[in-house]
Amino acid sequence: MTSIIRERIRDGLWRDNPALVQLLGLCPLLAVTGTLINGLALGIATLLVLLGSSTVVSLIRHQVRPEIRIAVFVLIIASLVTAVELLMSAWFHELYQVLGIFVPLIVTNCAILGRAEAFASRQPPVVAALDGLMMGLGFCAVLVLLGGMRELLGHGTLLRGAEFLFGPWASILEIQILPLDDGLLLALLPPGAFIGLGLLLATKNWLDQRRAQRPSGVTQPVSPTPHSS
Amino acid sequence: MTSHQAAIRQMLIAGGLLLAFTLAGVGLVALTYDNTLEKIEDNRRAHLLRQLSAVVPHTAHDNRPESDVIEATDPVLLGVNEPLPIYRLRKDGEPVATVLTAVAPDGYSGDIILLIGVDRHGQITGVRVAGHQETPGLGDAIERSRSSWITQFRNKSLQVTDIDNATAEQKEAAERWQLRRDGGEFDQISGATITARAVIRAVYDALRFQQQHGDLLFADADNLEDAIAAREAEFQKQAMESADGPSDGEAGDAAAGENRPETDEDE
Q1: Considering its fold, how many domains does chain A have in total?
Q2: What ipTM was estimated for this complex?
Q3: Distance of residue B217 Cα from the nearest chain A Cα, in angstroms
């Protein structure tokens, strides 16, 4: 059982990361990562939907017939996304307005339907839920990382707009790291998102290759956290 | 025959399942909607009030502008072909200021939505950007959180009552509504000339709109078209009552003249 758990964690966060390896859900990934907080907010929303959809799909996997399964999955995902959208509008209104269309567009994130079809519909609920959680975390981590990179280069700050997510007190969380007046505009524009994602992909592959080249024999401890947290 | 029946049975089961899941999904959404409706409404209102208080100090009025709205459609002066809300601010029942919603359609990318507070004397109390897609780092300097550029509209006014019959001096005043590099008196935003020009133009047009309609913006109607129609009907009625008095056209002119001294006084 522990090996299953460990494998789920490793797959979601690193080896099968939805954003870095499966390259799914790139549209929101590239569009909203102007700042770290924006990335985090959409990441959490996606995580909630993914967790919910994986669990529900797994629970009903014996009832749903193959010929209607995709329709049912889409229904489940769409309902969950609408619910999350309403909740977000109720509790994080400012953020909801910043993210705009990308919250409802979580429906079209293929990472979610992909996980439902390829994994959750064949696994018991606990494993599916864990998988959803880990895939969501992996996706969220990439959003945060990319958002942080772009914000740092574009504005020279981190955690700008934290008050939208955590309440008014959190505006003190914004830290100026680089003394930039204008910042690197490229980082904030869409090409900056593509370049940033490319750099992340390259870094991940480089790390993987370096690990593969090391003399194997001893099982490598799985530690995806240093990179993806 | 039996295979036929079996196939139909299968279909019915599949359809029933789909229906069941649809109902469950709708149920979930309906439940969430019901529970968040009030909170979302509150958020919207709070957001709007925050925006309004940025363009007109909230001490200046004592009514609830979010529910004192008149809608107006003016593609030329307000920028889009759709009705836009105009919020009316009153103190002790007396009109104090209006907050116009205007759109600058000719920004660098997409519409720039503006909230423009104008007091009774045609003077701007404040302008804020309510929505835009300008380039981050350049055009987004129109946001108050990024720079103070937008605050230079404060206390500006048209100083021209009728642009078509304006004197040379008044025309000069109108020309001041441009960027410094175009011969006007507004600071530029480096790297975002198009954005700045669009905003200045939109604010200028909105002021002209405000001047054109004046007190009619405070009329007791849901939209400006109704208010205009109601006023015209009243003029006609007056003209009918004084049967041997002046004709319709003259009555209209007289009424317009009646209005004009007031605007002059405002200037």
Answers
A1: 1
A2: 0.78
A3: 29
